[in-house]
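Following up on my earlier thread - several people asked me to post the actual chain instead of describing it. Fair enough. Here it is, all 171 residues.
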Amino acid sequence: RGSSASEKRQKTTRTLSSTTMNCTGDGSTPCGSHLGDTYGAPQIRRFHNGSWGAVFGNGLNSVSADAGIFVMLVDPTTGAITFRYLSAGSASQGTGNTPNGITYVTAADLDGDHITDYVYAGDVYGNVWRFDLTSTNPASWAVTSTPVFTTPSGQPITSKVSVIAAGGTGS
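Reply from S.P.:
Thanks for posting it. Predicted structure:
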């Protein structure tokens, strides 16, 4: 018999919250409380700090009711795995009755060096967020202070966001 989504989330939440996993979040809440029912496939990517890893949305119905992304990093020297949680911020904070969350993420390499520069993701409240992963120091990774796009009536964004590079001369 398989486990229900809720049972799997509880097991994963315990793993992310345990002392055996290195997870950095907002500092006030265990990272595992931000993990909900995930839907999108993790995006395997290389990051500016030299690590490879995966990035994925925090899912729906998390205990924290927040929207954000998880970045799992694999240390290139030791193989140690760490997780970072990046919240979309106070504007993305839901409540127990109306939780927010991110289902799919889109990693973007804007300069063609095969290293992730930004991650774009839509949330249940109809906002598209840009997470800046351009720093070599993961502690400096951040989200834009306001959404880069908001749907007209707050319609949920539950599918993958498409990102294209638009060239131009600026004149």
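The longest helix spans residues 5-17. That should answer part of your original question.
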